[in-house]
């Protein structure tokens, strides 16, 4: 049986974190959800640096990445992940309130797997997160990792 990979949630808004975690929990996903609150910490997690140096979990099944983040913004995180031969196949979903065309275009230029605008309504937001979690953590078949 394949290893259950964590979901990495990169979000700085406490209310969005709470809603996202509740929606993923209601989806009954068994995947651990790791929450980091800025882009620098996301990179530390992905590269096993700093407080995440000795993490036991495998690389994420998906990274749910906010665009506007403290320290290192979402586009910079995305650029580093997709430029790295080890991490580039990790699915990244930009999960943001931005509807700016330039953000969408730049995200796809950098290799984002999906760009999802956070719905304003509670129920719509909740449903969107549940669908994302189920798709990326269960239904999506990622490519095999080199050497695995």
On the 0 to 100 scale, the average pLDDT is 87
CATH overall fold name: Rossmann fold
Gross CATH architecture: 3-Layer(aba) Sandwich
Tally of domains = 1
Report the structural category: alpha/beta
Q: Report the strand count.
A: 5
**Could you say which overall geometry the principal axes of the C-alpha atoms support?**
globular
How does the SSE layout of this entry go?
Blueprint: E1 7-10, H1 14-26, E2 33-36, H2 39-46, E3 62-65, H3 74-83, E4 92-96, H4 101-109, E5 114-117, H5 122-139
Parallel strand pairs: 1-2, 1-3, 3-4, 4-5
What features would you describe in this structure?
This protein has 148 residues and is an alpha/beta fold. It has one domain: 3-Layer(aba) Sandwich (Rossmann fold), CATH 3.40.50.2300. It has helices at 14-26, 39-46, 74-83, 101-109, 122-139, and strands at 7-10, 33-36, 62-65, 92-96, 114-117. Strands 2-1-3-4-5 form a 5-stranded parallel β-sheet, with helices on both faces. The longest helix is centred in the C-terminal third of the chain and has 18 residues, at 122-139. The chain is globular and about 35 Å long.
